[in-house]
Amino acid sequence: xxxxxxxxxxxxxxxxxxxxxxxxxxxxxxxxxxxxxxxxxxxxxxxxxxxxxxxxxxxxxxxxxxxxxxxxxxxxxxxxxxxxxxxxxxxxxxxxxxxxxxxxxxxxxxxxxxxxxxxxxxxxxxxxxxxxxxxxxxxxxxxxxxxxxxxxxxxxxxxxxxxxxxxxxxxxxxxxxxxxxxxxxxxxxxxxxxxxxxxxxxxxxxxxxxxxxxxxxxxxxxxxxxxxx
Length: 229
Known about the structure:
This protein is mostly beta strands. It contains no helices and 18 strands. Helices cover 0% and strands 47% of the residues. Strands 4-10-9-6-7 form a five-stranded mixed β-sheet, with no helix packed on it. A five-stranded mixed β-sheet has the order 12-18-17-14-15, with no helix packed on it. Strands 3-5-8 form a three-stranded antiparallel β-sheet, with no helix packed on it. Strand 17 (184-193) and strand 18 form a beta hairpin. The protein is rod-shaped, with a radius of gyration of 40 Å.
């Protein structure tokens, strides 16, 4: 940009706002046609630093799951994370596990000596949802063929559940009983859920067949090949 100054003007002060960081060459040219040397030039280089800029993203999560924080700030800077539960971290990319459900305020402070304002701060809200706990008990781990097996539901914090008893058998009974007609190992799973989170627990039981040997209590030694001895 070029500014024109009259000899009768007072000493000028010009203000220029630069919108982008970088190195700029500023030149001042003075002209006086009444002089033997009518023009003189002075040049100075100015480097404008960028502002420190902090940005991160986080998603609501379920209790007990590690929450991932996506940091989009300059990785060469220094960072201080405050997770809202009294704990902190200085890592660039970090994660955190919240022990209790609720609303938390997460703050990230960036400190960058290569910038003009040196630091910047951003705060966001995070909600941790209550986590259901799937749990059940079985009276033993091996059961006879066609013997009823009782599954006791001990889950907490759920609003709905369903069972996978193996062999394609599913039910939403609270505590089901089932007699297996297949032998061998079978995996039983309980799925629990609330409006935001879910949990699963699986256990393996074994179904066996107890054979009986029929022993005759009489014999007929008449040579016909049946119960002769």
